[in-house]
Amino acid sequence: MSDKLLRTLIEDGQVSLVAVDGTETVRHAQIIHNMTAPAARAFGRVLLAMTYMSCWLKEETGELSASIKHRGETGEICVSGDTLLRMRGYVYNPSASTDVIGKGYMTVVRDDSYGKPFVGTCELVDGDVDKDFEYYYRLSEQLPTYIRTDVVFDGNGLCKAAGGVFLQPMPGASGMAVQAAQNFRDQLSDFGKLLEDKGMAGLLKEVFGVENAQETAFSYGCRCSKEYIAGVLSSMGEKELRDILSAEGKISVHCHYCGSDYEFKEEDVNEMFPPATEKEQPQ
Ligand SMILES: [Zn+2]
Prior knowledge:
It is a single chain. The protein is α+β, with helices and mostly antiparallel strands. The protein contains nine helices and twelve strands. The protein has two domains: 3-220, 3-Layer(bab) Sandwich (Hsp33 domain), CATH 3.55.30; 226-279, CBS domain Like. A hairpin with a 6-residue loop joins β6 (104-111) and β7. α1 packs across α2. Residues 222, 224, 255, 257-258, 260 line the site of zinc ion (ZN).
């Protein structure tokens, strides 16, 4: 099952409108990470904003990560996405009882897979995910971007709807178009309620008069695998791994992004570091 990111232009082509319909993705994350509704709301809104950011990645192998370190109860929130909009992440404290983002800062790493990754850091200005991302865009891209995101929950505290709307005036847009984009953002102050009542398609039609948009599917997706984890482990060095093996009998690795557990035994380590006799065998 997958969600949708919709792109179109409004205001005579002067404002880009992207809508992220992320209910399944946020719900999936909430379930695998066992998040309370407040933790899932804070995390989900970051994930929606990151899905938007990821849709502008240019290189096929591009990857984007954000880490929000703050004093609020959820603690650090990390979300990554790639060009295919495979989104993943985790929150430090999934049991948080409030979604308030405290003072802190956000670090965004964009890896276009050539040369050095771009790293941008900015202070969290408002304690509100939308405003913090708006500020990040203003600082890093020098572009006004108007954002509304929300996650709403059913009676059991499980994500029932999650979405975001992102408005960005195109370069050279008129003052009126910029103002219109801002007005739309302000008009959507009750975004969660609108999303719940009308769904993303209904909201786009009613508020923006948009019925057709370019669609891209996206979903929660982790890129971990036993081979990938083996690569990370082998970089720790043979001695370290053999020490853990002799102490614990196995090496257990938990992926924070998707909750998968991996186990490595002696034969796996032998495969990473073939014993000397095998190494010296002629080809
Ligand atoms: Zn994983």
